[in-house]
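FAD-binding PCMH-type domain-containing protein structure dump, as promised
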Amino acid sequence: MAVLRLRALVLAVCLVCFYAPAPSWAAAGDFLRCLSASVPSQLLFTPGSPSFSSVLVSSIRNPKFLTPGTVRPLCIVTPINASHVQAAVLCGRRHGVRVRVRSGGHDYEGLSFRSVQPEAFAVVDLANLRSVRVNRASATAWVDSGATVGELYHAVAKASGDRLAFPAGLCPTIGIGGHFSGGGFGLLQRKYGIAVDHVIDAVLVDAQGRFLDKKAMGREVFWAIRGGGGESFGIVLSWRVRLVPVPPKVTTFIVPVSVNDGAVDVLTKWQEIGPALPDDLFIRVVVTNGVATFQSLYLGTCDALLPVMRGRFPELRMNRSHCREMSWAESVLYIYVGSGKPVPVTDLLNRTTLMDTSNKATSDYVRQPIGRDVWAEIFTWLDRPNSGLMILDPYGGEISAVPEAATPFPHRGGVLYNIQYMNFWAAGNDGEPNVRWIRDFYAFMAPHVSKNPREAYFNYRDLDLGRNVVVGNVSSYEAGKVWGEKYFKGNYKRLALAKGKIDPDDYFRNEQSIPPLAKNK
Ligand SMILES: Cc1cc2nc3c(=O)[nH]c(=O)nc-3n(C[C@H](O)[C@H](O)[C@H](O)COP(=O)(O)OP(=O)(O)OC[C@H]3O[C@@H](n4cnc5c(N)ncnc54)[C@H](O)[C@@H]3O)c2cc1C
Ligand SMILES: *[C@@H]1O[C@H](CO)[C@@H](O)[C@H](O)[C@H]1NC(C)=O
Ligand SMILES: *[C@@H]1O[C@H](CO)[C@@H](O)[C@H](O)[C@H]1NC(C)=O
Ligand SMILES: *[C@@H]1O[C@H](CO)[C@@H](O)[C@H](O)[C@H]1NC(C)=O
Ligand SMILES: *[C@@H]1O[C@H](CO)[C@@H](O)[C@H](O)[C@H]1NC(C)=O
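structure tokens r here:
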């Protein structure tokens, strides 16, 4: 049990009182005094500040992390320039206070703003550092970590007259910083691969407070930050990316198939067809109680799409009435919202999300098609009380053509599709039966998914897969294998060596950060 004590601290710029774990309150006071010397007081929020709660909650996406039991930071810093980020790291280092960095706040375990064990830590919230600078002529952009993917997509579409795009996630409010740090996949992955396949430079603040670009950070660290997981190597301030061409009009369709109409057969078939279609065609499936909904993006016209569907996937019985032609930027929201109604493209800039439900998620990779009988049984799982849903994202094409060691994201050749399991419950409920359902369903799925290791996607973070064990003031490399090899397969060791280079003291640490490994081990 943590003993929490109230301490009143008088600071140069703010008069505050806050709760902090007893052992570090003195360090915390020194840390805050240090910060006050370099960061304007209106950018610092301690639990005594009137806006502390609203700043903390501003980008929380899961109300289950709003309970009184959640371990909160002793301070939130909201930098408006890079020197403030540097100051947070230098003061944190000097006074033994760790920082957790938050970009979009979508972390499934909330690790960008909470600690699982009581600990005095600060949050560096990058929401104010979010410019997007598009260079149409070179088809590149610099994007700051605090931007959302929606802000990136909007800027790219606008600057290019809907001719350029970027291959990353579907939900417009996810933050660039966390999303790129873990890979970043979405509806363009079969054509163009994932976000980190297109990162060509970056600016990192390391544990010594240095600003490092691609060249200065060195080959191994630049490799590691492109998918090796957020928080582990330092704070990435901005990313230079290569943009990709898209036709000015793309085609989307959404086709629901109920179990009574043959969803089990269509899904069984989809497993082999989805990953083998032409790269311009992406068909994912959302599987809920009694219905499989096929959601698709095609980089071309409806006229060109119809013969492909008739030839390759007649079982879906898709026809012209399902086609909706629109710009690529519009297609993101059309498919994400999924209501079948058009959504204005400016909604890509809306950073507010609904907070009416909490959720729990986890993931799997499938390398062998799942049998028809198993699909029939899966639908009985989705029909139970307190059940959730599955999202199946097809691989194949470019995402699978990139070699496994080219980036830390290892789920490449041979993967048929990714499964995300998700369950929701009303904010305010404890969600225990919903979490139990997802854990039981995950256990049921074990024989049918990838093995040795049972692969998982880092950005669908799940602490059930394991967490760090600290030995002698650094996270243990051996203990970290339990979760690290699921997320990174054979790349885990190389990530640990890169961590050993850039942050051997393990200053940047959370429950699933990469442990440092010294070279001679
Ligand atoms: C509704 C929803 C939809 C999603 N859809 C997709 C999808 O389509 N495709 C997909 O691939 N993923 C998807 N995700 C997962 C998403 O990619 C991850 O949750 C991602 O980590 C979120 O990034 P963030 O900046 O919003 O999160 P944060 O919570 O801010 O950060 C996540 C982790 O990265 C660290 N971090 C944040 N910023 C930085 C930085 N600048 N430098 C270093 N470390 C940093 C944090 O400390 C934390 O550990 C979705 C998530 C949600 C909630
Ligand atoms: C960053 O902000 C500080 C004020 O906190 C200011 O002194 C400094 O000049 C700014 N730096 C840049 C590069 O804008
Ligand atoms: C443990 O690491 C932290 C962060 O690097 C450091 O501040 C602290 O002094 C270290 N403690 C010991 C006992 O080495
Ligand atoms: C197209 O599909 C819809 C829905 O499945 C169906 O109602 C409609 O009759 C079909 N149209 C044609 C021309 O086949
Ligand atoms: C932004 O999205 C939220 C959540 O969906 C919604 O409630 C709000 O009305 C939207 N704001 C604007 C300006 O559209």
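The domain at 132-245 is CATH 3.30.465.10 (Uridine Diphospho-n-acetylenolpyruvylglucosamine Reductase; domain 3).
lmk if u need the other ones
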